[in-house]
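Customer ticket, subject: "Can you confirm the structure for DUF6973 domain-containing protein?"

Message body: Hello, I'm evaluating your service for our small team and ran a test protein. I'd like someone to confirm that this is what the system normally returns, since I don't have a reference to compare against.
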Amino acid sequence: MPSPFESLPASLKKVAQAVVGAPNVFHAARDAGASASAAADVMAASAAAVQIASSATDGTPGLQNAVRHFIWQAYIAGRHGVAVAQAVADAHEAGRDTPHDTRIDQHNNEVGRAYGAANSATIGRGSITDALQALVPVAKEKWASDELIWVKPR
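Agent reply: Thanks for trying us out. I re-ran your input and got the following:
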């Protein structure tokens, strides 16, 4: 049976998947030790990262996805710690039927977590939106230097 998201435009598909996956993200954050308010912040950041990556990229294949995963994990690691970020990323990827895409996402998540952990003082300031938007140029630099990767079409 095809996914109900298949008929949606790509930008809405990602948002819909984020909303449907929100309870998993919330519970993963809580299970990793986040407070209820921190887990709610993680959920809000997850949805905001989809929107910000979409509006900040130009259609270059793979760029939007790489930016989204990087800023999402950098934000969560910077504000809530690496353990919460890892748990949320694992919950997000659990049960996916695209192992190659999952490996790419896991790589970009790890790059984001490392950056977030190293820059938590900066990431910890401002609103969710401001923090995520400030991470976009960093993600693009990492994309340009091939630190972030993507699934190439066959």
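A couple of notes from the result: Residues 10-144 form one domain. The radius of gyration is 14 Å. Feel free to reply with more questions.
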